[in-house]
Write a structure and sequence with these properties.
The structure is a single chain. The protein is built from 18 helices and 16 strands. The chain is an alpha/beta fold and 474 residues long. The chain folds into two domains: 225 residues, Rossmann fold, CATH 3.40.50.2000; 230 residues, 3-Layer(aba) Sandwich (Rossmann fold). The chain has a seven-stranded mixed sheet with strand order 1-3-2-4-5-6-7. A seven-stranded mixed sheet has the order 10-13-12-11-14-15-16, sandwiched between helices. Strands 8-9 form a two-stranded antiparallel ribbon. It starts with a strand and ends with a helix.
Length: 474
């Protein structure tokens, strides 16, 4: 069985971005693509990641690779394979880069296993990659491939989608583990300047924030009837909620429909006009789902209206996140411990992943129906669910950590200086629930901010600049 799998991406028409970004930005994108094609010549740009589904990295690659292909750039995407032990240790590296020391440093045996798994993947990658090709490695799971790829003559950049803007023993341990591999890279990409480790040469560091695709099933416009019909179909709205069409446009341009139910833990269901507070993320301890529940139960539900929906992927559906099931179990225990009155207004929702476009349409409907979107992370590399919520013209209450602080600017939402302060979280949510006019104004400003800063044309142009620099250094 092959360890490395090629991902086929549906074409994304870059021309349609013009209706969102305007003709001047569209023309700039086209000129950048023309320049890059000329510099690229016969080379290929390769992306290498650890999964093709179930997270923000995979979602962005589906879009960016599709746009690049439409713009005439020769680009490919390959996914590596690892066993449970490999993904457990890379999850530990992920947590360490976020400053979390749980599990302690990696042992010599675990380090050997990491190297062994990636050596096996490298043996399959190398015949596909030619000298001079450009390779983007994504996150700690792929970092160990850099030396082998550099030896074969490829130009290698490592893209970290995670990080914190401070340093402790855990972050130092992670970088000490990864640096021997990453020293072979020709360039390094981070979402924020604050994430660049001190050992990375500044001339090799590039800052490229993530982006959303306004036309994806997760972000495309849905009318109110479709939103309510989708939520009734997945089981979030109470029985007897208005039916209707659940159609959406798939990533390949075809028509899809939401037909699968979600798995829901909850004693009550909101009606169609009940306000929802929604957080969508992986089942990850750093997302602090139990803290969101406690803040809602203690400081929103008493004397206030609305329901809380915590939504994430089916816990068996994300290959490179072995903690998902355990964290969901912790959330379930925390839900059971809530006071009865609050528990009746809290739903834990796991969304099926059999059809990724359908899953994305479910997320879209949840965010569009929300009165308030939250992202109360304890640490966050970027948190693209924030920009996705803002794109739907919804106010977001988020922790002032990592990239969330870049996305929520004054007037577009509410930042929490201390993500563990449940009372402040609850007060922020109550303020927006009790002041729909203020919430609506924030939501409109939030959408404008995303359009100006986090749409894919900017992402592609920044990659073009970085990759052109790698070519120039050959």
């Amino acid at each position: 069985m092959s360890l490395v799998k090629s991902v086929q991406v549906a074409a994304h028409r870059a021309a349609r971005l013009e209706q969102v970004i305007g003709d001047a930005r569209q023309a700039r994108l086209v000129r950048a693509a023309e320049r890059f094609r000329a510099r690229l010549g016969e080379r290929t740009v390769w992306n290498v990641s650890s999964t093709a589904a179930g997270g923000g990295v995979a979602e962005m690659l589906q879009v960016l690779v599709g746009y690049a292909e439409d713009l005439g750039v020769t680009v490919g995407w390959m996914v590596i394979t690892g066993d449970a032990e490999f993904f457990a240790l890379t999850k530990r590296l992920h947590n360490q880069i976020h400053g979390q020391a749980a599990g302690g440093p990696l042992t010599a045996g675990q380090a050997a296993h990491y190297a062994q798994v990636l050596a096996a993947n490298a043996a399959e990658l190398l015949p596909r990659i030619r000298p001079g090709d450009l390779v983007l490695l994504h996150d700690p799971q792929t970092a160990g491939l850099a030396p082998a790829l550099a030896t074969c003559g490829a130009r290698v950049a490592w893209r970290s989608h995670i990080g914190v803007d401070w340093e402790n023993d855990a972050t130092r341990a992670a970088w000490d583990f990864l640096r021997p591999y990453l020293d072979a890279a020709d360039g390094y990409v981070f979402s924020r300047a604050q994430y660049v480790p001190a050992w990375v040469p500044r001339r090799k560091a590039w800052i490229i924030p993530p982006s959303i695709d306004p036309f994806s099933p997760k972000n495309q416009d849905l009318d109110g009837g479709t939103v309510r019909a989708i939520l009734a179909t997945i089981g979030v709205l109470e029985a007897g909620a208005p039916g209707g069409q659940t159609a959406f446009v798939r990533g390949d341009g075809g028509t899809g429909a939401v037909t699968r139910p979600a798995e829901i833990t909850g004693e009550g269901r909101p009606g169609p006009i009940d306000p929802l507070v929604v957080q969508v993320s992986r089942w990850d301890r750093l997302k602090d789902m139990p803290g969101v529940m406690a803040g809602f139960a203690g400081h929103v539900a008493p004397g206030g209206s609305g329901y809380l929906v915590l939504a994430g992927p089916a816990v068996t559906g994300v290959a490179d996140d072995p903690e998902g099931a355990a964290v969901f179990g912790e959330c379930l225990l925390a839900w059971r411990d809530l006071p009865a009155a609050a528990r009746a207004r809290v739903l834990l929702v796991t969304l099926p992943l059999e059809d990724l476009d359908e899953n994305a349409a479910m997320v879209n409907a949840l965010q569009r129906h929300a009165a308030v979107i939250t992202q109360k992370s304890l640490a966050e590399g970027f948190g693209l669910t924030v920009a996705e919520g803002m794109w739907k013209a919804r106010p977001v209450v988020g922790s002032a950590v990592g990239g969330i602080a870049d996305q929520i600017t004054p007037g577009t939402g509410i930042l929490l200086p201390d993500p563990r302060d449940g009372a402040a979280f609850g007060a922020a949510v109550r303020t927006l629930l009790d002041s729909p006019g203020q919430a609506s104004q924030m939501g409109r400003a939030a959408q404008d901010h995303v359009r100006a800063n986090y749409v894919g044309d900017l992402h592609l142009i920044r990659y073009e600049q970085m990759l052109t620099a790698l070519i120039s250094e050959c």
